[in-house]
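Incident log, structure service

09:12 report received: a user says their structure output differs between two submissions of the same chain.
09:20 pulled the input from the user's history:
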Amino acid sequence: MNTSDAKLAQSLYTKDGVFMPTEAPSGLGSEGILKSYEYVFSQIQLNIKFFIEEIQVEGNMAFAVTSSKGTTLIKATGDTIPEANRELFVFEKLNGEWKIARYMFNKTEPRPYKMKAIIATKPGGPEVLKIVETEEPKTQTGEVKIKVRAFGLNKAESYYRSGAYGIFNSELALGYEAVGEVIEDSSGTFEAGQKVATAMGGMMLARHGGYAEFITVNLNNVIKIDSILSS
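09:34 re-ran on a clean worker, output below:
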């Protein structure tokens, strides 16, 4: 969303948008609402990106869970405010068209966000695995961020976890083959929400594998997969 999106924001409050209509100013009308948004956007500058986390469709109803991050610049003071939210969009299909039925959001802490990962706390069998909270990985140039839906552990990784190789890192999650949806790709190669598969290139990388909620991967190691395939 940026300063040019006043019409988009205004449309959410119109009758067709069905966006929390009970909270729209009574009798103001679409023109008045649009002018209000234009004034708001003239006072601030938004630089916010939205990322799709999950989409589900059931008949004529659907919902999308998204997250957003970025900054708001207050032009009058020059202050920059970090923004981080999670949103829930509920859609209803009416006369063959999808309309926004409800929208909810809550403020979250500015990045770095936290995620859950499973790590081996010491060399050993499955009993050494533990769920931990750690920082969500940041995307570097040439990388894709993926929300993990499924992952694989190969035999070499089980040997590594057991300590058989004589090297061990108790801070990294294993699982270097994974399937999921693209959350972020600055190169534009993959669209947000695209289903992909990746082989990350070995367990000696200084990064989390797929035994975590999110991973970052070199885009050359990512391929699109058909949406009809399950994870």
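09:41 both user submissions now match this output. Likely a transient worker issue. Closing.
09:42 reviewer note: Residues 1-6, 12-28 have pLDDT under 50 and may be disordered. The chain has two domains: 3-107, 114-224.
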